[in-house]
Amino acid sequence: MKLKLFVDRLSQPCRAILIFCKLNGIEFEEVTIDFCKRENISPEYQKINPMQLVPAIEVDGEFKLFESHAILRFLASAFPGVADHWYPADLFERAQIDSVLDWRHSNLRHGTTGLVFNSTVGPASEFRSSS
Ligand SMILES: N[C@@H](CCC(=O)N[C@@H](CS)C(=O)NCC(=O)O)C(=O)O
């Protein structure tokens, strides 16, 4: 399976995908989509992810997928070398992973994104205010 990751390492969901692949020995090609340069809204990238966000993946030049949790679930299921504990075959254990993933999207991420951006990324980047 030939896997391409469309990512920007500034992005937490992108880092989650990269770390998951590295920890599980999944080979991939990393394609940087620099959202500070608005590369995510280019017509070329829109063909990969119509939502114009990172991360997204492409498999074998055909199958495309966006949303980090959907990507993580897919990778855990599609690559046989991934240990079962990441996304268990047991339905009850799997449901608990799904529950935490869904909770994270609507809770943990909202809180931490603003905090990290305003305290660290913003002041260190071109988003810094001129005042
Ligand atoms: N729920 C999505 C969130 C994706 C997302 O918000 N990506 C941000 C980077 S963390 C992005 O692409 N931002 C570019 C923009 O808003 O223009 C996921 O988990 O994949």
TrEMBL record:
PROSITE patterns: GST_NTER (PS50404). InterPro entries: Glutathione-S-Trfase_C_sf, Glutathione_S-Trfase, Glutathione_S-Trfase_N, GST_N_Theta, GSTT1/2/3, Thioredoxin-like_sf. Coiled coil: none annotated. Residues 1-83 form the GST N-terminal domain. Transmembrane segments: none annotated. SUPFAM superfamilies: GST C-terminal domain-like, Thioredoxin-like. This is GST N-terminal domain-containing protein. It comes from Coffea canephora.
